[in-house]
Every structure is written in C-alpha cells, then in structure tokens.
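User: Can you fold this complex?
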Amino acid sequence: MSSYDIVVIPGDGIGPEVIDASVSVLRACEERFGLTFTFDFKDFSADLYRRTGRRITTEDMDEIGRSDAVLFGAMGLPDVRSPEGLELGAQVEMRAHYGLFASLRPVRLFPGVDYPVKAEHIDMLVIRETSEGMFAGLADAHEPSDETASDRMTITRATCEKLFDVAFSQARERRKRGTPGHVTLLHKSNALRSNVLMEGVFDEVAAKNPDIGSAKHYVDVGAMFMVTDPERYDVVVSENIFGDILSEIAAGLVGGLGLAPSADVSLTHGVFQPSHGSAPDIAGQGIANPTAMILSAAMMLEWLGGQHGDARCTEAAGAIRTAVESTLKAGRRTRDLGGTASTQDMVEAIIGAMGEVKP
Ligand code: ATP
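Assistant: Here's the predicted assembly.
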C-alpha cells in the first residue's frame, strides 16, 4: 500500500464541484491500485478574501508544501480584486513560493468530441514557463500613471535549462505512449533580446538530447500552425505569456477548456489544476465539465509515480485516462461539449468505465 498526503484547495465558482469529482475518482483508485490518499481540504478563495480579508500566507504555503502534492480547483471572482487591482489567485503565489517554473498543459483529441479544425490526430503538450518571462516584473515597484505603463520580460539561463530539460524528458516519456518524441520552441528572438538568450539555451539543450527531434518557430507563425496544422506538434515550449495564450489555443483545438488539464511543477513540488478558471457563469448548477480536473488528478498520479518510483500511481493514472476516453467515446458529455450529462453523471460514468479497464 502506498500512502500520499494531498492538500486540496477547491477555491471559487465551479472549483469545489470539479474538485469533488476528482476526489471521488481518486477514491475509486484506492483499493484497486493499492493506494491510500489523505485529503486535507484548505479554504483559500477569492470569496474567503471578500468575507474576511484572509489570503494565503508564506506560513500556509510552507505547511502545504510539506504534503506530497496539491490539487487545486480554480480561484478568482471577477469582482474581487487585491488592493493592487489584480484578480486574486493563490496559484500565482504558490508558483512563486515553490518555484514552479513549468506548467504542463497536454491536449489531445478524444473520439466522439467535436473540434473546430481539420486534423485527425492531435496529441500535444504545451509547456508554459511560469516563473519569469513577461510576468517577471509583477512585483516591481512602479508609479501609477495615466500616461505610460510598462511590464518587464526577463529570461534567465538557469530557468531555461531546467525548462528545456523538462521539455525533452517529457517528449521522451510521451514517446513510450506512441508520440514522435519531438520538441518545438516558440519564441520571438527576431524582436526580443530575452528570447535570443532563450533560443541559444534551447539549442544547447537540444544538442544534449540527440534522440529527441527539435524545431524552432517564431511564435506568431507557430500560433498559425497550431490552428492550420496542429498535428505537426508534439511538445511545444514557450515563455510565460506566449505559453499562456498558446495553451488556450491548444485547448480550443480539441473542444475547449473543460477537457484541458494542467500541472504546475518544480523539481520537488507539484500543483495540479484544470486550465480553466472558476467559470462563475455556470457555478452551482451541477453542469461543469469535470474532465479537465479529473485529468489533472491523473497528471498528479503520473507525477507522484515518477517522483516516488511508484508504478501503482502510474497505472492508476493510465486507467483514469482510458476511462475518460471511453466515457466520451460512448457519448457521455456535458453541455459545453453539446451533451446533457451533469457533473455527477460524468463522475459516475468515468468511475464505472474504470471498472472495465483491464489492469
Ligand atoms: P481565468 O482567467 O480564471 O482562467 P477565464 O476568464 O478564462 O478564467 P473561465 O472561468 O476559464 O474563464 O471560463 C471561460 C468560459 O468557459 C466560461 O464562460 C465557462 O462557462 C466555460 N467553462 C470553463 N470551464 C468550464 C468547465 N469545466 N465546464 C464547462 N464550461 C466551462
């Protein structure tokens, strides 16, 4: 039996609904795969801040960081802002605190789900750098002005080396499941000094990984290829704001945010959350698509499997992915995908399908 301590932060809007769904699926893995999870629920949300002024603190994050992993629903409400005027998000503070430098955002086509582009086989991992790039200056001192405002893009060699190591090793891992083993850097080195450095480090890391193919495109043309020829991409890596935008394009390619999971990782910590936000427009109605969150829980298992050399976690992750695929293929879909299933219907169907997956 392997035991893991998981901190669970449901957050706002549909966050608690999709978190409940993923916890049910993880519970369904316990007996079958010889796993035990202790879930420690923490209430950090924009709603809590509105009611009490309480935000996540350094001490909270030190304590949370002693767990094995964090499952995060969604945080933020449009009308709740910090004193600096920004939307609240414990996920942003956790990225800085734990040094989570890479956000892994896989997308793939699921049989039976409508998608808007001409392609037969999309299976792509977008890796967004999440500790610097265009958001490097978020904490910079500034004088508010109605005339001029600036942001700062900073790229460091140290982060690029770690980021590209992750990209090439992800391509190698994915290849075991049938992908080509290829990494593309999307950048803007023709206009941005920071991206010249990024491109140079990418070339160095690519040279050390000759078994994995590599390519580089300017981000503007790369964004077009993503829509016109998405099958050309396996692992795509980019700086912070480009990666943010590219990962949402990628989610749109395969049917939307309800299907797009993510993992924010460092070499030692992982926070697993759907790519979507709190979707307040549909909260509380029981209609949120839980698939992105459930696939994020599968990414957590995959990551725990790698960190602890635990094949039980890796097997459970595979069973969840297979069950999600067969559920969607069988026509069970929430409203965002044109179906009528509720969140709970999806959870029951996925847990039922896991019972059919051969160990
Ligand atoms: P954020 O900036 O926090 O990422 P956002 O402004 O991009 O949030 P989301 O909360 O992600 O917005 O939602 C965008 C739209 O997608 C919403 O209108 C919502 O209804 C829909 N949506 C997002 N996630 C889901 C989901 N899991 N199930 C169904 N619909 C969703």
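The pocket of adenosine-5'-triphosphate is lined by residues 14, 76, 257-258, 276-279, 281-282, 288-289, 292, 336 (CB under 6 Å). The chain is about 40% helix and 20% strand.
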